[in-house]
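Dear colleagues,

I hope this message finds you well. In preparation for our joint manuscript, I am sending the Mitochondrial transcription termination factor family protein (Dendrobium nobile) sequence together with its predicted structure, so that both groups work from identical material. I would be grateful if you could confirm receipt.
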Amino acid sequence: MFSGKQVPAVGVSLGIERVLPIMEQLEKEKNKVNYLKEFGLSTEEVGQLLAYKPQLVGCSIEERWKPLVKYLYYLGVHRDGMKRILMEKPVIFCVDLERTIAPKVRFLQDIGVRQEDIGSVIARFPPFLTYSLYKKIRPVVSFFC
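The corresponding structure tokens are as follows:
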């Protein structure tokens, strides 16, 4: 059919320059799945979690997840609490620790929540960390106090 003639390239190359980044990305995703399993999530739960909140895939383990987990462990949130946070409000693992989480923890300290109780408060009610400090948390506390 094309014997002796040059056939034009149509741009369907899967050259090594395209395969390597794909493999690197797959390795990153595998690391995220394994990291989530460390909190006691089953493979099925990880799948449901990533299907429900696919933005977790875009959040860096090193930049977002590990600093948050370290901070939450410091506050007294244990493995079961971490699993609960992931299942109830996974978006917490994508927010900025210093701008979003730490001010709410300081607020809890300021209103007299004992340091040893902060972790259990967070683990029992993960949505607290997603609420606006000035639009929701402070007005509600002011109303009741």
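For the figure legend, we might mention the following. The chain has a mean pLDDT of 88. Residues 16-37 form the longest helix (22 residues).

With kind regards,
E.M.
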